[in-house]
């Protein structure tokens, strides 16, 4: 990993990828003994996100089209919904309250996802979301705030495509114009 870092101190390697650590495997060299209890806490998944398009006010659908497949591929899209309820129990040895280990594992993974999402935002957008404390809070805010303007862009591009005429342009220029609009539509997930 290269030593370069952004203003948010998120490690970025030499190829421009945000690196939030290395993946931890939950594999074992020998099968577990069926008589011993197994750890039910899921392993932490560390992610690397190639930052090709930082989220700004005008590219929500393009940004979302990069983030969602990554979270789906790692089985982390459920973190964008409501968090599990936390529960406390009393430690019999110390008598102190402690959080449920499942919730703690969820919280750690959620904070990793939150850091990844924040690192993929432009500084202008980042300033608007500093109060979001979970990845789900951030996702809901961005979706609510920016999806309608993205839908307007989508509608505008579709109208441009439908209303395109060759006019006095050469065939090559006309095809390139249609291709550019189609590429933009594909990029934003239409």
Automatic annotation (TrEMBL):
Residue numbers spanned by region Disordered: 1-43
Biased composition (Low complexity): 1-19
Pfam families reported for this sequence: Retrotran_gag_2
PANTHER family, sorted: OS01G0873500 PROTEIN, PTHR47481
Protein name as catalogued: Copia protein
Organism expressing this protein natively: Rhynchospora pubera
């Amino acid at each position: 990993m290269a030593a370069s870092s952004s203003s948010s101190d998120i490690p970025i390697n030499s190829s421009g990828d945000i690196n939030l650590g290395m993946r931890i495997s939950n594999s074992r060299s020998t099968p577990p003994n069926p008589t011993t209890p197994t750890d039910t806490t899921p392993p932490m998944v560390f992610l690397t996100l190639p930052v090709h398009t930082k989220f700004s006010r005008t590219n929500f659908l393009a940004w979302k089209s990069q983030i969602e497949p990554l979270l789906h591929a790692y089985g982390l899209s459920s973190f964008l919904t409501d968090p599990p309820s936390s529960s406390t129990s009393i430690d019999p040895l110390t008598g102190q309250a402690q959080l449920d280990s499942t919730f703690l594992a969820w919280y750690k993974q959620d904070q990793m996802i939150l850091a990844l999402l924040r690192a993929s935002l432009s500084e202008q957008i980042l300033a608007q979301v500093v109060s979001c404390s979970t990845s789900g809070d951030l996702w809901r805010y961005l979706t609510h705030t920016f999806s309608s303007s993205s839908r307007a862009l989508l509608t505008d591009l579709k109208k441009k495509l439908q209303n395109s005429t060759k006019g006095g342009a050469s065939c090559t220029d006309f095809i390139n114009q249609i291709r550019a609009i189609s590429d933009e539509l594909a990029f934003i997930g239409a």
